[in-house]
Amino acid sequence: MSGGLTRRTILAGGLLALLVGGAFAVLLVSLAGLREAERRATRSAEVQVAAGALERTVITGDAAAFAQRAAALERLVADQPEQRARAESIRAMGDRSAARADLAALTATERGHAAAARRDSDTAGRRVMLAGVGGLIGSVALIVLFTGYLSRTVVRPVRRATTMAGRLAGGDLGARVPERGADEVGALAHSLNTMAGALGENREQLAASRARIVAAADRERRRIERDLHDGTQQRLVSLMLDLRAAATAPDDVPRLRARLDRVVEGLAATLDELRETSRGIHPAVLSEGGLPSALRALARRSAVPVELTVDLGCRLPEQVEVAAYYVVSEALANAAKHARASATHVAARTAGGRLHLCVRDDGIGGASIGAGSGLTGLADRVAALGGGIAVTSRPGQGTAVEVDLPVKRRETAPPGRP
């Protein structure tokens, strides 16, 4: 069967209507025949009753009753020429006894008519039964066949499409449905597959774009840190040394020495602030010693005691190390500022080509990525690298930040180079 689903549905509906209409037409014709047969049988019975009554008047010799009943019999058979002629002959007979022969012939003919009417009635009744049963069976069969066809061509594909839509909503953009048929359902499957392919391409492009943004941000951080370290910090150090040298002037200029001492103190404070800013932009220890050294530095500076467990083996990709560093830094900062924790545990290990990172504290809990914490930006960074982040923080049960990142091991970089 060719054509679209709409055309097939209309065709099936037309066949069903034709079948039901034909069955009803046969039923109506048969009912009309049944009514006609019953009418004929009833008239024959009336004629036989009238003939019997007329015969009794012949026996009794009641002339008035004979004439009345002969006229009634003539009216009953008025539509049958043969029987009407017999009725007229009976009424015209002067010899009432001679009418008995014609009455017998008329009665016998009417019995034959009655038998024929009964046969026609039985035949019409059978036709009515056959038309009803045949129409019912044909309708049920056609409905069952079309229901099976709809189940195979519509219900099952729609269920597959629904399952695929659920998988797409769950993030499985590789889900596809078979594109069977060229009708509307096939077009729907093709559209869903096209949409899934487009979503997959868009997700890949988005992931690549996010990764490029993260990499560019990291490069910019390194540039700023390097510029601060090699430029501003060096000039400040040189200036501070010059001022210290000037502070060793002769004792006859104590006011100058006091001023110079204050300038040196201010420059020292500015240099400390600049170093702290530089460390926040891009930690030099991460570039120089890798993630283990950077995590140990974070643990030393943490206001909350930290138990550190690191099992990495060798250097990881720079973007992975930077993301892990900032996750631990933010988690430790939250533990100290918000969680009122008394102890934290940081664990980092690699297994199966992935970095597994976990930061736990024994604080008050209640944290979440979407609660305005700094973990929101870190979640974007982790997602851009193809990883995942989960925060478990039930009230009163502490907080656990778990990160899983894909890694590709690289050769150990020379000291001082990323």
Question: Would you write up a description of this structure?
Answer:
By secondary structure, the protein is of the alpha+beta class. Helix content is 70%, strand content 8%. The chain is built from 9 helices and 5 strands. Strands 1-2-3-5-4 form a 5-stranded mixed sheet, covered by helices on one side. The longest helix has 71 residues, at 99-169. It is rod-shaped and about 180 Å long.
Q: Spell out the helices and strands N to C.
A: HHHHHHHEHEEHEE
Helix count, DSSP H or I runs of 4 or more residues: 9
**How many β-strand runs?**
5
Largest sheet: 5 strands, mixed
SSE arrangement:
Blueprint lengths: L4 H56 L2 H14 L4 H12 L6 H71 L14 H64 L6 H28 L2 H18 L4 E6 L6 H20 L6 E8 L2 E8 L13 H10 L3 E5 L6 E8 L12
Parallel strand pairs: 1-2
Antiparallel strand pairs: 2-3, 3-5, 4-5
Helix pairs in contact: 1-2, 1-4, 2-3, 3-4, 4-5, 5-6, 5-9, 7-8, 8-9
Quick summary:
The chain has 418 residues and is an alpha+beta fold.
Question: Can you give keywords for this protein?
Answer:
418 residues; alpha+beta; Heat Shock Protein 90; 3 domains; five-stranded mixed β-sheet; 9 helices; 8% strand; disordered C terminus
